Q: What sequence folds into this?
């Protein structure tokens, strides 16, 4: 197999796979049913055309038969009047028209045979379409059920694209949370060890000395108040 042939085969296989993914069998079945219904309508129109043609020929034949009967009466009247020449002319026209009528009879018979066959074909086609419609609805229902089962199964197992996206989002959120918790714990450990200090808290030694001085001032002030109260007695 040449390079071009192999490339053609690969292209066709990929195109077929892509088409299979995009194709919804329910839509395909509905489309096929619509086409069959269109075909049935065409058959019905053709049948109506044949029936119309047959009826027109029958009317023409009736008119010719009426002329044949009239010419026969005219021939009799001509003989009664002693005009054999007129009788022969009437009978000649009668023979011509009778021949035309016979031809129409044959054509009407042919059309009647065609009409009968078309009616049988129409009935068979209509029965086939009715059966197809029932089958397609069953297949559509089965496909919808299978599709729903697949979606539920994919969602349950997490292999669907939507659930995969949800799972990845949850994993990213969990990873970020773990990183934030680890960072907070690390900061707490560094703070407790004294490696990190709060720059807004000032000098911790000076703060402690300030507390000692404040307590000394309080003690002195308390002693003063006691002394004043004792002297007033």
A:
């Amino acid at each position: 197999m040449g390079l071009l042939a192999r490339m053609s085969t690969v292209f066709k296989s990929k195109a077929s796979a892509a088409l299979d993914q995009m194709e919804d069998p329910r839509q395909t079945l509905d489309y096929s049913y619509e086409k069959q219904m269109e075909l049935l309508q065409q058959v019905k129109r053709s049948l109506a055309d044949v029936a119309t043609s047959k009826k027109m020929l029958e009317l023409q034949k009736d008119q010719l038969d009426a002329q044949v009967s009239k010419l026969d009466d005219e021939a009799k009247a001509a003989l009664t009047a002693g005009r054999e020449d007129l009788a022969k002319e009437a009978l000649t026209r009668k023979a011509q028209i009778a021949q035309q009528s016979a031809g129409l009879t044959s054509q009407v018979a042919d059309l009647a045979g065609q009409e009968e066959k078309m009616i049988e074909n129409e009935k068979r086609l209509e029965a086939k379409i009715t059966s197809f419609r029932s089958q397609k609805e069953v297949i559509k229902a089965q496909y919808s059920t299978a599709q729903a089962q697949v979606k539920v199964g994919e969602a349950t197992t997490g292999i669907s694209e939507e659930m995969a996206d949800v799972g990845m989002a949850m994993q990213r959120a969990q990873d970020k949370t773990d990183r934030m918790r680890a960072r907070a714990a690390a900061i707490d450990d560094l703070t407790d060890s004294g490696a990190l200090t709060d720059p807004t808290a000032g000098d911790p030694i000076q703060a402690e000395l300030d507390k000692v001085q404040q307590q000394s001032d309080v003690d002195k002030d308390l002693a003063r108040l006691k002394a004043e109260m004792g002297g007033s007695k």
Summary: The CA atoms of residues 107 and 113 lie 10 Å apart. The chain has a mean pLDDT of 82.
